[in-house]
Amino acid sequence: MNFDSFKLKSIDGQQVPCVKLSNNKQSDKTALILPGFAYPVDGPLLFYTKLLLVEYGFDVITIDYHYNERDSFIKLNDNAKDEYFKKDQLFLADQLMNIIKTEPLLICGKSIGTTAITIMYDHPLIQTRLSSTSFIWYTPARAWEKLIYILKKGNSPSFLVVGNSDPFYDKKNHISLGKLPDYIEMIIPGAGHLLEKENDMSGSIDNISSVINQLEKLLKEEFFSMNK
């Protein structure tokens, strides 16, 4: 596996570490991994996701924006944080879309990373390639309204995972979604926001394993392919 490090710039000029992972063959498809607020790209769910995607022929780009360690972000009030985050994600999207030349594109977000997807979704350079873009939504936190809008609009295969013990889980959201084309959801009983099972280490590991197994099944079925 090949590892290439590079850096993007944040909206206030800070360096944002990135890594591109690839196998030894030239790929015509790219996956973008957007982590959580404090959940890193090497957290277990994202770690095995990126390795699996590389195994299935994707070039994988991970973005370590480290908002939990960025003083310029932490010191802001909630409204200012929302505005900073939106501007920063669009600025990152500007840079990323000038780097990612291949299609199709798969964008995977965890927690605040799913909020980042809902922001990047409106970027003109992503809008022009929606017909070749698919999404993985891991444990969405905020922006459910926009997320539901994107899913109902269709056109882009989506895989969504959430635990029903996650504080951000709301059964009404999933009833609202119903059965949609090119949409697979996985609601894990008793799982929290990290897909953890309280006081049950082996159960928590099983939760992660079940997600990765389902993702591999979808990759084998070419669920994310635009040529199905």
Largest sheet, described in full? 8 strands, mixed
Radius of gyration: 17 Å
What is the CATH C-level name? Alpha Beta
| Low-confidence blocks of residues | none
Number of helices: 8
Rounded mean pLDDT is 94
The CATH topology is given as Rossmann fold
Regarding quaternary structure, what we see is single chain
Range of helix content: 25-40%
Portion in strands:
15-25%
Distance between the termini: 28 Å
Shape summary: globular
The strand count comes to 8
Please give the CATH architecture. 3-Layer(aba) Sandwich
What class would the helix/strand composition place it in?
Answer: alpha/beta
User: SSE string, helix = H, strand = E?
Assistant: EEEHEHHEHHEHEHEH
Supply the number of structural domains.
1
Order of strands across the main sheet: 1-2-4-3-5-6-7-8
CATH level 4 superfamily: Alpha/Beta hydrolase fold, catalytic domain
Summarize this, please?
The chain is of the alpha/beta class and 228 residues long.
Can you give a write-up of this model?
The model has no long low-confidence stretch (mean pLDDT 94). The chain contains eight helices and eight strands. The chain starts with a strand and ends in an 8-residue tail after the last helix. The protein has an eight-stranded mixed sheet with strand order 1-2-4-3-5-6-7-8, with helices on both faces. Helix 1 (44-55) runs parallel beside helix 8 (201-220). The protein is an alpha/beta fold. The protein is 39% helix and 22% strand. The protein has a single domain, classed as Rossmann fold (3-Layer(aba) Sandwich).
